[in-house]
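FAQ: What does the model actually see?

It sees only this:
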Amino acid sequence: MTKSITTRQASLMIFIVMVSTKLVALPSVISYNMGASAWFVFAMSFVIDFAFLLLFLNINSKLNMPLLTFIKLRLGKAVSTIIAVLVGIMMLFKTIQILVAIYLYFSELIYVEINRVIFICSLAVLVYYFSSRYMQSLARSVEIVIFVVAGSLVLSLILSLKAINLENLLPFLNLNFYTTTKTMLFHNLWFGDFWLMFFFVGNIKKQQTTNRQIIMGYLISALTVLVFVVAFTGTFGYLAPIFRVCIIDITEVSPRLLNQARFNWLVNFTFPIALIYAMGIYSNCSMLCIKHILGKNTKSKTTISTILLLGAIVAVAIVFNLTFTNLYYFLIDVFFYFNTAVQYVLPIVLLVLVQKPGGKNLMWRPLYD
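And it is asked to produce this:
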């Protein structure tokens, strides 16, 4: 059985992760700072991320082995361990951010206080399952999940169409450069999905159309998010910041539909599949970093890595009481410094690293930990 994932699977994984992580609370919190111009922050963040996606595609064209393995061979175990720690921490907080978003989603949906202990235990089981699987297993499952996710997105948009008022997007591009830059910088943890390519390098089947398919998948994902952000702002206008869950709230603006048939419940109970899948992808990436840190000689490495990851996630969730507000202010006040350095500086270092003196490419035979 091949260890590789197909280009199509990689593109679909990027789509689900990008869409699910940005259509819960992010439109609301960015609207608080940017008002009608919230869509611009998304657009510019996607432009920056697209540039880094191209960077990772360039790296992918030069290597036939996982990046951490390459770094270990090129610079030694110590350097690769440091990079694995940095990337692992970033992926850990991306996982926790989604976990808290799932809690927020269900607490808003059910309108009752969910028992945090039961909720953490339930998601801990899912995290353990996802992180103990091979990336190839998750890649195969995406071809089933995508239909449910796409259906919920289409239905959600249809239910909101009559309520969208594009005049709520005015004044158009009334931007404050400082506020816009600050908002983009503080919320960068919610972006940076191009980092999935870090784990796809050496694990993705290379075809002539690989770059084109992944680029098209990314552009479609970004356009989908922008459409929903515009729909969200167009529906609620200056009141958008008080509506905390974009994908739910835009389906509840048509009283006639709500009275005759609660089609929005189809969205409410299918979209969490995308959130749980995205959480699983990032937890799996975190686990791969821990496995690299432990090294080849560790017995039951996958089990130990998964338990360590699970312990870290539960510990952080307890510290922040699984509360969106507590975690959010920590991320934008403190963690964004670390995340900015890792998310946007480290890829440039990696690009330089894969170049041989004289500019020739380094090609390796496939090698897996």
